[in-house]
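Hi Y.,

Following your request, here is the sequence exactly as I used it, all 341 residues.
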Amino acid sequence: MDTQHNTALTRALAEVPGPLPTRGVIHITIPHTDRFTVVGNHLAQHPHLSCTAVGLAVLIQSLPQGTEISIKALAARCKEGEKRIAAALRELEAHGYLQRLRHRLPGKKVITRTVFCNQPAALLHPRPRPAAEARPRPAASAAVPAPAPIQVPAPAPVPTAAPPVPEAPVARRVPPAPPFVPLAPLVPPPTAPKPPRPPLPQPSEFTAELDRAATALLGDLRRHAPQFTLSEDDIRQLAPAVAAWLERDAHPDAIRRTLTDDPPRPLRHPVKLLKHRLTALLPPPLPGACDLAAPARPRTVVTPFQTCDDCDRAFRSPTPGHCRDCREIREHRGEDVRVAA
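Below is the corresponding structure, written out as tokens. Let me know if you'd prefer a different format.
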């Protein structure tokens, strides 16, 4: 009772859609509802940034606007020292995520502004902004005074016969927006019903010899892999599937290696693993001798040459007789004509 098991994690693993990988990480994705930050894979999987720089970039991106992110302020938040934090900031600055700009305030005071961009590659190809966003906005801070507008004297009015009549604005017809159609989720929710598992393969004729060989092979698995110690009920349940492999001329050593090689660690359900491998890795039947023989090419029938009985001219015909010219002469004379069949 000294080992504690996380039952919530076990239930979450059972609800992961699809078969679990035999190695590597298994993701349990729970959507965030508050206090989260969107981080691009270009930063999280950056090939040239250290893990310290990536983690520091995620920390800076999650902080609110106006938070102090100097080296000393970051060292107070993190466990890393100032030298390591300074090196990570230089990495981010070299790859465009971080910029330090010097700004001179009124009174000859110089301050440093630190700007962090979550996607520096997008700055190289800026998107066109809408007309509402293209309008100038008022300054967000009153610390930097805006320059005074330059007053230009208005020109003297020029006398005209009649003031021009302004043209009425032409109303443009804005096409209606297309209806919003929600996209179907690519990944089914964890609560979605799982598809039924395919049945175990069955032999065309489950003879006594196949039953004996399959039972012996399953009972012998524990000699090669102790984690595959099966009960008698499990062996009787899996014996027809192994018999289907033996019926397709699969070698017993090949079946044993396929079933026991590279199991997941730890192996919690050996019978389920054997069922999956017996079903998913079932080999096709061996082809027969007729299937391996090369297809026969169609024979080309060549009409032989014949010699005309009257003029000794050569012509092609399956049987002896007269050529075309001699047949026409004989028909004109009313004589018998030997026509080739």
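Strands lie at 98-105, 109-116, 305-307, 314-316.

Thanks again,
Q.
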